[in-house]
Structure formats: structure tokens, C-alpha cells
Input
Amino acid sequence: MNIEKIITELNYKAVRSSGAGGQNVNKVASKVVLTFDLNASQALTLEEKELLVLKLTSRLTTENILILNCDEDRSQLKNKDIVTKRFLDIIRKGLIIPKERKATKIPKSVIRKRIKDKKNISEVKKTRRKPDLD
Output
């Protein structure tokens, strides 16, 4: 994954933000919308694209476009930095291949301990019963 090449493929759009900010909200387009077309990306290999499609299905549109918004700050530049960092984190986490779990055998000592504990509990419950007077 080439980060510099991916960053050149990002599309930014400034939009008017909602929420607190008074008249500034009505005048300034501080909200940043980042779009990234996964299918058209030249920086990612085919295998990386397939892995990202699998892991980011809930975040992608039907055309495999990732859309991220940021309106945390009143500054457009800061919002652009925040949304870019967020995007790179998502891509890095999406490209991590988890290790396969190796099935292990249950140790004999653990099996013995479980059986011993069961017998012990059984004995305790036997002593609680009413005596058999036959």
C-alpha cells in the first residue's frame, strides 16, 4: 500500500457544517467530505481491494465508494487532516490479515481436574440429601 499515491486519489469536498457556530456556520463551508473510489484506485493491488471490500462492506456504497465526513472543528484544514487520518486508519485496519487460530488439545491435567471437581460437587450434594431409612 503506497500512502502517498492513495492520498492523491482522494477527493475532498467542502460543505456547510451543521450545529453550533452561530453565523459562522451559515457562511463558511468547514465540513469536509472525503470520497475514495476503491475500484478505480491504482495504489491498491487487486488482492488488497478484495480484502477491503470484504472488511468494509458496511461502509462502502454499492459502487464501492468510501465516504467519510468530518465537521468536528470550525477550521476546514483541521477537518481535512482529521478525515484523512481517519481514512488511513480505516484502510490500515482493513488490510490487516488476522492470524489463523490453531486448534489445541485439552491437557489431560485439565480434564482430570474437571472430573475431580464434578465428583467433589456430587459428594457434597449427596451429603445434603435426607438419609435413607429403609
User: Anything to note?
Assistant: Residues 3-94 form a domain with the Double Stranded RNA Binding Domain fold (CATH 3.30.160.20).
